[in-house]
Amino acid sequence: MENEQSGPGTSLVAPAPPSRPRALRRVLLASLAAGVAGAAVFGGLLSLVPSAPPAPPRAGLPAPGPKPQTLTTVTAGMPAALPGLTGLIADRERHLRAHPQDAQAWTVLGTAYAERGRRSADAADYPKAEQALKTALEVRGEEDARSAPALEGLAALANARRDFDEARSRGEQALELSPKRWTAYPLLIDAYTGLGDYESARGTLDDLMKLRVGAEAKPAVMARAAAVYRDRGWREDAQAQVADAAAGARTPAEQAAYLEQAGQLAWERGDRHDALRHYEAALRLDPDQRAAMAGRGRALAALGRTAEAVKAYRAALAGHPAPQYALELGELYESQGMREQAQAQYDLLLATVERNTSDGVDGELVAGQYEADHGDPQDAVDRLRAEWERQPGIEVADALGWALYRAGDPEGALHYAAIATDKTKGGGVRSALYSYHRGVIERELDDGPVARRFLQDALRVNPYFSPLRAPEARQALAELGDPPDEPVPDDLTGIQ
């Protein structure tokens, strides 16, 4: 079914709220995608909204920062525009040179650095963010309830670095200091999901949904719920939540983020045209939305508009390339027989992973994915086994299973492929790539019926999921042939 619900005790979240009729949701998302050019512009940077008021400034201390109306809550999961983040960073640095004991200003600076690094894929911002946020804790003390925003900033930074254990630690510390602050909950959901702790992620989302949050925070909460519903395979409920989030967003950057999320949902269900509309709408609102740039490349490639797809990917990779986008562009080149250009992207991927590692980013997942298909599969196994020990999430399970298959161990591969695709083991997300991997592994193990089922599912979920692997899935299905005719069991003969 389009929107499968899990049985009692197996879901990641509580039963999904009543959702709009499908046609109404799609009309809402389509109208948002078509009308974003006229959206109201707030200008958007960031602000911290601590539940406990900050200590009054010392006499003579100037009021910090840009004007309040130009700020938006990054620490509350509300995206900010890159130019605004850069302006805020410059403003806070000037302020702190004169007032180095202002813990709130250090928190704002660190959070802005972390968000700019995440948005721009510039990992060089991460050590600066860490230093600023830890300085805020040193000035105010980690046990002070007013330090919760700085701890949340460190949790967000750790999630961006794919250090989910650190994100969990900092997020739980922040929540203990200030349990009424809703802003720690989304960070913990990301951390628990990355660690494969779906029970804790479910409970955290349940707690978040019970909190009373202001109108300005509701879109961010709905977007977080949409991400969790997506992870459980509840695609219609995810679509409903993200439609509401986009409709309620207060700034162009925030609305662009939720439209990009809607585009990703459309892409994952194989709707190329709808995905492209949402990605392009996001870019009209926020031209710096790199995820939407790469998503646009993905959708254009699926539509056969390869030259435009390459241009979109190159825009996403400009300045500070994200390794995942380099991998996708490399595979697009390879699907066109352009091996030299593909290798250039793969080399860029490896160089970026190495550079980002020095800034504290864990790039083992994407490096392992590259090595499994285009490099040394045994190296991929070694990388991904270690990654699984650190943070056993679904993405890592799928990647490790595929690496083991590519290294010649299909029996070992099946264990991890099953984790990625079996709802009882956590794999609720409907991923065409995961189903493809499972199908190929089952075929290698001579289980034709199961292989056929998973390969068919991959192409049913998204027939365009990869310019390299989707054609291979179709070829594998053709080679398996039609299922054999089975005689009707004796106890079923005569049933009308």
What is the compact description of this entry?
The chain is mainly α and 496 residues long. The chain has helices spanning 22-35, 82-98, 103-120, 125-140, 148-160, 164-177, 184-194, 198-210, 218-231, 235-248, 252-268, 272-285, 290-302, 306-317, 323-335, 339-357, 364-374, 377-390, 394-406, 410-421, 432-444, 448-461, 469-480.
Give keywords:
496 residues, Serine Threonine Protein Phosphatase 5, Tetratricopeptide repeat, 23 helices, 0% strand, disordered N terminus, disordered C terminus
- Overall average pLDDT: 86
CATH superfamily of the domain at 39-52 and 65-212: Tetratricopeptide repeat domain
CATH hierarchy: architecture of the domain at 39-52 and 65-212: Alpha Horseshoe
Low-confidence stretches: 1-19, 36-71, 488-496
Order of helices and strands: HHHHHHHHHHHHHHHHHHHHHHH
If you compute it from the alpha carbons, what radius of gyration comes out, rounded to the nearest whole angstrom? 23 Å
Q: What is the SS-derived class? A: mainly alpha
CATH class label of the domain at 39-52 and 65-212: Mainly Alpha
Q: Helical region count?
A: 23
Percent helix, as a range, is: 55-70%
How do the helices and strands line up, and which of them pair or pack?
Layout: H1 22-35, H2 82-98, H3 103-120, H4 125-140, H5 148-160, H6 164-177, H7 184-194, H8 198-210, H9 218-231, H10 235-248, H11 252-268, H12 272-285, H13 290-302, H14 306-317, H15 323-335, H16 339-357, H17 364-374, H18 377-390, H19 394-406, H20 410-421, H21 432-444, H22 448-461, H23 469-480
Helix pairs in contact: 1-10, 1-12, 2-3, 3-4, 3-5, 4-5, 5-6, 5-7, 6-7, 7-8, 8-9, 9-10, 10-11, 11-12, 11-13, 12-13, 13-14, 14-15, 15-16, 16-17, 17-18, 17-19, 18-19, 19-20, 19-21, 20-21, 21-22, 21-23, 22-23
